[in-house]
Amino acid sequence: MSLSISLRYAIAGGLFALLIHGLFFETVWHGENLVFHVIEVLSWILAAFFIGRLKEGWDRRTRELKHANAELQKQMEERRKAEQAMREREELFSDLFDNSRDLIQSIAPDGRIIYANRAWRENLGFAKNEVPGFPMFEVIHPDCHAHCMERFEALLTGKEVDKIETEFVAKDGRRILVEGKCNCKFVDGKPVAIRGIFRDITERRKLEIELQKAQKLEAIGILAGGIAHDFNNLLTGLLAVITLVKNALPPENEQVEILEEARQTCLQGKELTGKFITFAEGGSPLKKCVNIKELLKQSVQTALRDSGIEYGFALADDIYDVLIDAGQMQQVINNVVINAREAMVNGGGVQVRAENQQIGEHDGLDLSPGPYLRISITDQGGGIPQENLAKIFDPYFTTKRMASQRGTGFGLAICYSIMRKHDGTITVESENGKGTTFHMFLPACPPAGN
């Protein structure tokens, strides 16, 4: 068993005292000097013992300080690692949120934005420093305020809300249709933030409408094809009889004029059946690779002849050749230009543009990616009301009075059908009172040798 430091110091002190006395004092350890010497040695021993105790305390305190310092260093390292891990997690989640294609936002109970990720900011045109404190309802389209306020208040009371579909308005005025889910964060029973994740479904909705339109036209095409062929056969027989009777009468006979009117009516009926056939398989285009410049110019000039409406062309020099049925494409251009002509009852102008365009997967058009020719026809008419824009390509939809203006509601529906059969499409942009632009997309001819 080892001796403590204080005892070792006491023994060493006693031995040192004895050594000093033996070397430096010529005294005999007896008589009256003996007590003096003993007292001196004991003093040395006590002094050494206390020095040993101080050394023990110093060493113990040093060990405690070293241990405390080691614990502190350990705690500091653990805290540093925890802070580093927290920063990495924050960076991870920040990176995850900022690189998400979804629109992520956090809204305070007073309706002001706390946080919005990069996709949200870029889609709506906000800089990062503009987001905190911005009123959320200024981003929501006014038509959706009541709908969103109802759900906002429900979330603040702790209720669950089903999928939300609404419209955001970007800084540049674009309307963005979104759908998503929201929930509310509570602290001590009080709402502190409404968190939402939304997805831009503007292009998806357009594609859904295009698909519904195509399905509707396909169903009508099947019906129209059968009816058109049967009706055309009836008209052909009737036209033959009228022609025979008319030819059998003398030219001066008053009935000849009546029969001629009947014959013209039959011919108009055959023209209408031809439109129906466009929807059926029999109306499939016979396509050839052509440069459409001359066809465009001739079609527009013919449609606007004697109308007093001015027109102009902006046709790029290097436009693609396109694979089309020239007759059907002329019908499309003719129908669109006649629509423009009828929209400008007080005169105006038509501008026709053609330029090459590369269509990608995310351009919001129901087209295969690749090179296309885009033809745009813009008029200066009164425009199309927003409530009618989604219906203008529907069969039988027309704003004309059928009897007085001979509107059938098939003109633009036929245009749409022909464009789809050419593996292209037709779209419209319009604002009430500010004119209308129809865009026609036709796939470019494949390169020679393909």
What would you say this structure looks like, in words?
The structure is a single chain. Helix 7 (293-303) packs across helix 8 (326-343) and helix 8 (326-343) packs antiparallel against helix 11. The chain contains eleven helices and twelve strands. It is rod-shaped and about 180 Å long. It folds into four domains: 5-86; 103-200, Beta-Lactamase; 206-283, Orthogonal Bundle (Helix Hairpins), CATH 1.10.287; 285-450, Heat Shock Protein 90 (2-Layer Sandwich), CATH 3.30.565.10. Helix content is 50%, strand content 19%. Mean pLDDT is 80; it is low at 26-31 and 401-408. By secondary structure, the protein is α+β, with helices and mostly antiparallel strands. A hairpin with a 5-residue loop joins strand 3 (164-169) and strand 4 (175-187). The relative contact order is 0.06. Strands 2-1-5-4-3 form a five-stranded antiparallel sheet.
In short:
Helices cover 50% and strands 19% of the residues. With 450 residues, the protein is an alpha+beta fold. It is rod-shaped.
What is the CATH superfamily classification of the largest domain? Histidine kinase-like ATPase, C-terminal domain
The radius of gyration computed from the alpha-carbon positions, rounded to a whole number of angstroms, is 47 Å
State the order of secondary-structure elements, H for helix, E for strand. Answer: HHEEHHEEEHHEHEEHEEHHHEE
Q: What is the molecular shape?
A: rod-shaped
Structural domain tally: 4
Regions with little confidence, pLDDT below 50 for 5+ residues: 26-31, 401-408
Report the CATH architecture of the largest domain. Answer: 2-Layer Sandwich
Which class of secondary structure composition applies to the elements? alpha+beta
Query: Helix amount, in percent?
Result: 40-55%
Which sequence of strands runs across the widest sheet? 2-1-5-4-3
The total beta strand count reads 12
**Ends distance:** 100 Å
| Mean pLDDT metric | 80
Major sheet size, sense and barrel closure: 5 strands, antiparallel
- CATH topological fold name of the largest domain: Heat Shock Protein 90
**CATH class placement of the largest domain:** Alpha Beta
Strand content: 15-25%
Number of helices in the DSSP assignment: 11
